[in-house]
Amino acid sequence: MAWIVLVFAGLLEVVWAFAMKQSEGFSRLWPSVITLVTMGLSFACLAWAMRSLPLGTAYTIWTGIGAVGAFIVGIAFLGEAMNATRILAAVLIVSGLVLMKLSSTA
C-alpha cells in the first residue's frame, strides 16, 4: 500500500508543479489554490509512505516521478523542447528509479 500512496504522491507533485507554472508566480487565484492543495496532499502522502519505506527510496521515487512527470507535461502541454539530451536525462532518471525500487527491501 505504501508504494501506491508514494506513486500517488509523485503524481500530485506533477499536478502542483504544473499548477504553479500556471499560477504565474501565485498571481492567479485558482492555479495558486490548486498548487497549495495538491502540494499539501503530496507531502502528506509522502509522509505516510515514509512510515514504512526507507527515506532514501521514498524521496528518490517521489522526486523522480515529479521530475519525469513535469518533463512530460512540459513537452505535452507547454511546448517545451524535446531533444535527445533531455530524453536521455529522463531515461536515466527512470533507470535510477527502477534500480532504487529493485534495491528496496520494503
Automatic annotation (TrEMBL):
Gene3D superfamilies: 1.10.3730.20. Keywords: Cell membrane, Membrane, Transmembrane, Transmembrane helix, Transport. GO terms for cellular component: plasma membrane. The chain crosses the membrane at residues 33-50, 57-78, 84-102. Its main location: membrane. It is found in: Cell membrane. One of its GO terms (molecular function) is transmembrane transporter activity. It holds the Pfam family Multi_Drug_Res. The keyword S-adenosyl-L-methionine does not apply. One of its GO terms (biological process) is xenobiotic detoxification by transmembrane export across the plasma membrane. It is a multi-pass membrane protein. Belongs to the drug/metabolite transporter (DMT) superfamily. Small multidrug resistance (SMR) (TC 2.A.7.1) family. Gdx/SugE subfamily. This is Guanidinium exporter.
